[in-house]
Specification:
The protein is an all-alpha fold. 81% of the residues lie in helices and 0% in strands.
Length: 167
């Protein structure tokens, strides 16, 4: 139960640059919100590797955003359905559907289209917000947390030592 939280805190305390962590989390937002087996996720994974984003942050964020995405699926469906049913866009959707490449992307899936639109729109604000929060944590909380964890570790070791003699 505590393991994901501890991994996240360890990630925040790592020597990685805040923008690399934020970029990994922002890419996880896209992959987590959208259906996993989608063509655009290959592009996201390529960018993740090329831009040297933190892969651990990506994997942790992917797990979190996948769960959150399940809760947001009704919203994604409404957004996608609204886009696909716009009469002004009907000609564009028909042209895209007649093209093999676009048909492979499954853009006509309401959840995929809605989640992709929302996640792409949220990408840049989320990147800057998470970057700022990581920097604030490192400036204000990191030393306090290290002190607390050192004390906790000492108490844990003392408890283990005492439990050997109580048997």
């Amino acid at each position: 139960m505590w393991e994901p939280l501890l991994k996240f805190i360890k990630l925040l305390n790592s020597e990685q640059a805040p923008h690399q962590l934020s970029l990994g989390l922002a890419f996880a937002l896209i992959v987590g919100f959208t259906p996993t087996l989608s063509l655009h996720n290959l592009l996201v994974l390529f960018l993740l590797l090329m831009l040297r984003a933190n892969i651990s942050a990506f994997l942790l964020g992917w797990a979190i955003f996948s769960l959150l995405g399940l809760l947001l699926d009704p919203l994604f469906h409404l957004v996608g359905q609204n886009l696909l049913s716009q009469s002004s866009l009907h000609e564009m959707w028909t042209g895209m559907y007649n093209n093999s490449f676009w048909r492979l992307s499954h853009f006509n899936n309401t959840i995929l289209l809605g989640s992709l639109l929302i996640s792409v729109l949220a990408f840049i604000p989320f990147f800057f917000l998470s970057n700022r929060l990581i920097r604030l944590y490192r400036e204000r909380m990191q030393e306090r947390f290290k002190t607390f964890s050192q004390r906790f570790t000492k108490l844990f070791k003392i408890g283990q030592f005492a439990s050997r003699f109580s048997r």
